[in-house]
Amino acid sequence: MNDASAKGKGREQGRLARRARRGGKWVLGIVAVLAVAHVAWVDSGSSRWKLVSDTDGIRVSSMKTPGYSLLKYKVEMHLDSKLSDIVYYMSDLNTGYDVGASDIHRLEQVTADPMFYAYDTYKLDLKPFGKLDVMIVNEYVQDPVTKKVNINVYAAPNKRAADPGIPRVVHLSDNFTLTPLASGGVDLQLLSEMDLGLPYIVQNLVMPGVAHDESAKMRAMLKKDKYRNGRPAFITELHDDRKLARN
């Protein structure tokens, strides 16, 4: 190799080294920006509800609390259905198949007037991210005077061993308030927070739409005959002091 060739090769190696150093600086810069943005996002939040959408009679609001990366959600809507139909829809295992769940099982249930609770498990397919294993405890309580029903759904990840290879949801809290009206129908409010194991940016972007769509689906499903006159044993209608008997 002559001197000219050696010098040319040396210059080329030098250029490559400088490019590598510049590229490394860019990568470090991007990582630093992302880290700062992450910390700023986690520390941000007003702990106040902000309206995200109000369409088709369904209001969806979100809340960002300091120290937590995921948003919380509130859904409000009116349902032209009987209280007992709504509770039947929400407590019947077959509903899960109609809304996309699979491998649904009830592990335990207890009815103790005016309270009902049950442990359920199911699989949820979050395409394209894969399946999730969900284990929950459902608690239904009715106020004997106002007939208002509170439904609290929480993750119960330690109730039974998880299936190998399928991640289990460990944080989920859905709190429904069903308020029957003297004029007819029921006002529904849902307060929801959960961690589905997705990148928080993705979950925060998609959840408002999911909350609206699932609420609209529920309203439509309640018009079907299969969810009418289900009569859960632990619910009394506002204008009916008789205990409704289970079919």
Summarize the SSE layout with pairings.
Elements: H1 3-43, E1 50-55, E2 58-63, E3 72-79, H2 83-91, H3 94-98, E4 101-112, E5 115-126, E6 130-142, E7 149-155, E8 171-180, E9 186-195, H4 200-221
Antiparallel strand pairs: 1-2, 2-3, 3-9, 4-5, 5-6, 6-7, 7-8, 8-9
Which class of secondary structure composition applies to the elements? Answer: alpha+beta
> Which percent band covers the strand fraction?
25-35%
Count of discrete domains? 2
Order of helices and strands: HEEEHHEEEEEEH
- What is the CATH superfamily label of the largest domain? START domain
What count of helical segments does DSSP give? 4
Unreliable spans: 242-247
Proportion in helices: 25-40%
Quick summary:
It is built from 4 helices and 9 strands. It has 247 residues and is α+β, with helices and mostly antiparallel strands.
Labels describing this entry:
single chain; 247 residues; alpha+beta; Alpha-D-Glucose-1,6-Bisphosphate, Chain A, domain 4; 2 domains; 34% strand; disordered C terminus
Please give a structural write-up.
With 247 residues, this protein is of the alpha+beta class. The protein has two domains: 43 residues; 178 residues, START domain (Alpha-D-Glucose-1,6-Bisphosphate, Chain A, domain 4, 2-Layer Sandwich), CATH 3.30.530.20. It contains four helices and nine strands. It has a nine-stranded antiparallel beta sheet with strand order 1-2-3-9-8-7-6-5-4. Strand 6 and strand 7 form a beta hairpin. The radius of gyration is 26 Å and the shape is globular. The C terminus is likely disordered.
